[in-house]
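Input chain follows. Return C-alpha cells only.
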Amino acid sequence: TSATGDTFNRALDAFRQPGSSFKPIVYAAAIEQAGYSQATVLDDVRTVFPQRGQEDWIPGNHDGTFIRNATVRKHLDISRNIPAVQALEAAGAEAVAARAAELGYLDVPAYPSVALGSIATTPLQHTSAIAAFANGGVRLEPHFIARGG
C-alpha cells in the first residue's frame, strides 16, 4: 500500500508494451536458432510481411527512413524495426515466444509484431528478463526487500 492508500503496484500491476527494448530477446533467439551473430548483415528496407488470413504487414522505422545493409549489432544499437522482424522470422516466432517465456514473460504470442515489443508485460517481468543478459543469460527470480516501520 502506498502513502496515499493506493494498492496498485506499478512494478507488478502496470502492464505496458516494452517496445524496442524487447529486441535483444528477438536477436538472442536468432543467434540461438538461426546462427546469427552480431556481425550478421541484414537489409533495412521497406519490406512487406504477408500475414496468413490478414492484410500484409508493412512496418516502418521510428524516423521513417531505411539504412540498408548493416550488422545486427548496428541495427540493434539504433533500433531498426525491419531487421528485428527479419530476425524473428529467421528464428521462428515460436522460438522467440519460447525464449521470452524462459525469461519470465507471460503469454507471449508467436506473432511477427512481437519483434517490436507489442506484448504486454510489467516492469518487473521486463526488468528481470533483460537482467539475464547481464547475468550470462541466466534469469534470476526477483526478490523483494521489505523494510520494517
